[in-house]
Design a protein that fits this description.
With 133 residues, the chain is α/β, with parallel strands linked by helices. Helix content is 17%, strand content 38%. The chain contains two helices and eight strands. The strands form two sheets. Strands 1-4-3-2 form a four-stranded mixed sheet, with helices on one face. Strands 5-8-7-6 form a four-stranded mixed sheet, covered by helices on one side. A hairpin with a 2-residue loop joins strand 3 and strand 4. It is elongated and about 55 Å long. The termini are far apart. The relative contact order is 0.18. The mean pLDDT is 95.
């Protein structure tokens, strides 16, 4: 059976990003971590490949040894259904620290509370508190 999981390619900040993400979610954990060894194409000690879990989602990441002209874009983001306004506000503050706010936390009609931030690593997070049915 085929499966899909997000893959985040960093250029030296994969471990710091993973550490932040898993610290913010109750189920956050690093499932596996392999580092680039001496003599390999990547910077020794950085993340060759890792898998972590946040908000029930398994995510793969690495520090790319290749120099490239692209980064992350807000057109792809994690969409997080929060359990409470407090959780949404905490995540928006923590993920937005050192990054930027794309949509400030507020009521936009489609959600009881919504915010969209880009973290300091360039990854986008949409945070929502669903309206009661």
């Amino acid at each position: 059976m085929a499966s899909a999981e997000p893959f985040l390619m960093f250029t030296g900040a994969a471990e710091a990003a993973m550490d932040l993400y898993v610290s913010l979610f109750d189920d956050g954990e690093i499932e596996s971590l392999q580092r680039w060894p001496e003599g390999a194409p990547g910077t020794p000690g950085t993340v060759m490949q890792a898998v972590f879990r946040v908000a029930g989602q398994r995510v793969r990441c690495r520090d790319s040894p290749a120099v490239h002209d692209f980064g992350f874009t807000p057109s792809w983001s994690f969409f997080i259904h929060c359990d409470s306004a407090d959780q949404l506000d905490r995540l928006a503050a923590a993920l937005g620290a050192g990054g930027k706010t794309l949509m400030p936390v507020g009521d936009y009609g489609f959600s009881a509370r919504f915010g969209w931030v880009e973290d300091r690593f360039g990854v986008s997070w949409q945070l929502t508190l669903d309206r009661a049915p």
